[in-house]
Amino acid sequence: MADASLLSGEIIHDFDQVLHGEKEQIHISGNRCGLEIAQEETFVYDLFEDMGVDSYPEVCIQTRKLRELTIIWLERLQSFRKKI
C-alpha cells in the first residue's frame, strides 16, 4: 500500500504529534488503508475489507517502529525515483 507517498510523507508529522504528546490519537486514511495512531501502537487496516475484494489483514505495530519504517521506505522510494 503506497498511501504514505500519496500524502507526501505527511504521516510522519502525524506520528510525531502523537509521539510528542501533542495529540492523544490520530485516525487517518489514504486510498487503501486506514490508521489509528496511538502513543504505543498503531493499528493499520484495509479500507476494502468486507467489500467483496481481496483485502490485506489488519496489523498492529509499535508506533515508533512504523514511523522508522515509513521514513526508510520514503527515502528509498525517493532514491529509486532519482535513478529512473
TrEMBL record:
It comes from Tigheibacillus halophilus. This is Uncharacterized protein.
